[in-house]
Amino acid sequence: MTTADGHGREARLGASVRSFPELLLQVGRSLHATLIVDNQGRIGRIDRQLATAVGWGNGASPEGRFMEEVLHDFPWLMRALHTALTGRETVCEGGERDERMRALVLPVFGNEGQCLGACARLSASEPVKPASAQHETLEQELTRTQQQYEELVNTLDGIVWEADVGFRFTFVSKQAERLLGHPPQQWLQEPDFWRNHVHPEDREWAQAYCMKATRERRPYEFEYRMLATDGRSVWLRALVTVLAEKGRPLRLRGIMVDVTEQRQARETLEQVASMLRATFDSITDGVLVVDRNQRITAFNKRFLQIWDIPDELLQGEVDPQKVLAAAVAQLKNPELVRARVYALYAAPEQEDVDTVELLNGRILERTSLPQRLGNTIIGRIWSFRDVTEERRAKAEQERLLAAEQTAREQLEESFALLDTFLNNAPIGMGFLNRDLRFIRTNDALALLHGRTREEEVGRTLREMTPYAAATIEPLMRRVIETGEPVIGLDLELEVPATPGKLRYFRVSYYPVRTKSGRIVGLGAVVVELTAERRAQAERERLLREAHEAIQIRDDFLSIASHELKTPLTPLKLHLRMLEQRCTSDQPIPPHLVRKSLAQVDRLSGVISDMLDSSQIEAGRLELEHEPLSLQQLLRETLADFRPNCLHHPLEYEECAEELVVLGDRARLAQVLTNLLENALKYSPQKGPIRVTLTRSGADALVSVSDSGIGIPADQHEYLFERFFRARNAPISGFGGMGLGLYICRHIVERHGGHIWAESETGHGATFRFTLPVRT
Ligand code: ADP
Question: PAS domain location, by residue (predicted)?
Answer without folding.
Answer: 145-204, 414-483
